[in-house]
Amino acid sequence: MSESTIVLITGANSGVGYATAETIASQPGYHVILACRDISKGNQARSRLETTNLKGTLSVLQLDVEDDNSISKAVNSVSEKFGRVDVFISNAGTTSPGSTGRDRLQKIFSTNVFGAMLVSEAFIPLLLQSSRPCLIQISSALGSVGLASDPTSEHSIPPWDEYRMSKAALNMMTIQMHKRLKDQNVRVFAFCPGLVRSKLRGDSEEAVSAQGHAGDPMESGKAILDIVAGRRDEYAGKFVWKDGYYPW
Length: 248
Ligand SMILES: NC(=O)c1ccc[n+]([C@@H]2O[C@H](COP(=O)([O-])OP(=O)(O)OC[C@H]3O[C@@H](n4cnc5c(N)ncnc54)[C@H](OP(=O)(O)O)[C@@H]3O)[C@@H](O)[C@H]2O)c1
What we know:
Bound molecules: NADP nicotinamide-adenine-dinucleotide phosphate
CATH superfamily: NAD(P)-binding Rossmann-like Domain
Radius of gyration: 17 Å
Oligomer: single chain
């Protein structure tokens, strides 16, 4: 197991995180830790993945990015079992469908900003035990200040203000982490998975499919595998998507 590349994915039971777990674990030489806030959803995801053509291995970890106690237990558990993390994919996120006002802002920032930052910081010491560490923040083109302020960009069209603000903050965090960690050979990326099917926007078919516009999250998973496997290393420190990179 310690020979395998150890990949931890937060929010791995659903959508982009699940598709990424499936894509990476379809390759030999990877152990994917499915980090999920609801352990029963994590175990169900693992059972589903075990019916696919797996060449890597899987484990499940309880991890709620909004709960400091859960984060610290998860770090201890991974430290004891593996002694390191080679790839940390900070994927858990929300648009907090159905909420409004202060509740909406609080939930979105609690998960997408505070959670992403605190869980990433907590796992950085284990990443630094890797001979080839990689840290990927799952962001969104909607968080690009450059695209939002460009009237010719399809990504400038409203709404999603609170979600955009959270991903803009996540992008700033990623820039800071890249500057801090690059001399320790950590490859740090922000990555936009594209508009893909998931329950991010809600549970109805209309929300899952983004009114029929959403693509297949397996395409996001393949692009993330390219980063993990080192095929996008020249873009370290950038805000990448499958076919290039975005302005911050
Ligand atoms: N889908 C898209 O079109 C799209 C586009 C751009 C960016 N993204 C980004 O992609 C990432 C994944 O989203 P998705 O589209 O795959 O949505 P999703 O299907 O709703 O998956 C989100 C995952 O995050 C988990 N999560 C939420 N809050 C958490 C917490 N406090 N602690 C731990 N896990 C938590 C969810 O767990 P539960 O199942 O327990 O709720 C779920 O596993 C997000 O960062 C999102 O912003 C998605």
